[in-house]
Design goal:
Layout (H helix, E strand, L loop, with lengths): L3 H10 L4 E5 L6 H8 L3 E6 L4 H9 L8 E6 L2 H6 L20 E4 L4 H14 L2 E4 L12 E5 L2 E7 L12
Parallel strand pairs: 1-2, 1-4, 2-3, 4-5
Antiparallel strand pairs: 5-7, 6-7
Helix pairs in contact: 1-2
Length: about 170
């Protein structure tokens, strides 16, 4: 079940076909909801939890329009990779990476810069929520979604990074 706040995030992200969730852990609700709306989601974490792995297996069911892959990957390494070969965990079966948006829920300050760098590298939109008690440490544009702050670090306007205050 997706909370009202997370449902609002899903509503915001569902317009994108291919997404990468950074730091899925064992909270795959947003990724699953996006897959159910027809999106192709790759959920990455240092150690994806059992629930995330199980939900990824469930989305292989024919009743799910999109797809969800949960894979092991370090956003620091993914952001710093010298070329697409460094993107291995999020590449498709042919080794290509095509991503429209990178997002994260409850993204801690220390992972914000590498997450935005990964989105820059992929030419993708980047949105995230923080842990709530932290302010973003990267330039963002703030949007209020169902009473929670959604931070946009890269948007559709030419894939440019936000120049808003951090």
């Amino acid at each position: 079940m997706v909370s009202p706040i997370r449902r609002a995030i899903v509503d915001e992200l569902a317009e994108y076909d291919r997404l990468v969730e950074v730091g899925v852990g064992d909270r795959p609700a947003v990724a699953r909801a996006l897959a159910e709306r027809g999106c192709r989601v790759v959920a990455v974490d240092i150690e994806p939890g059992d629930r995330a792995q199980a939900v990824a297996r469930d989305t292989r069911d024919e009743t799910i329009e999109g797809s969800l892959r949960a894979c092991q990957g370090d956003v620091l390494a993914l952001a710093e990779g010298a070329d697409e070969s460094g993107i291995g965990p999020i590449a498709d079966a042919d080794g290509r990476v095509a991503t429209d948006a990178v997002y994260a829920c409850n993204l801690p300050a220390e992972l914000q810069r590498p997450t935005v760098s990964l989105a820059d590298r992929l030419g993708a939109v980047c949105v995230f929520t923080t842990l709530g008690f932290e302010e973003p440490v990267v330039p963002v544009r703030r949007r209020s979604v169902e009473g929670t702050a959604l931070y946009v670090a890269r948007d559709d306007e030419g894939g440019k990074s936000s120049s808003g205050p951090a």
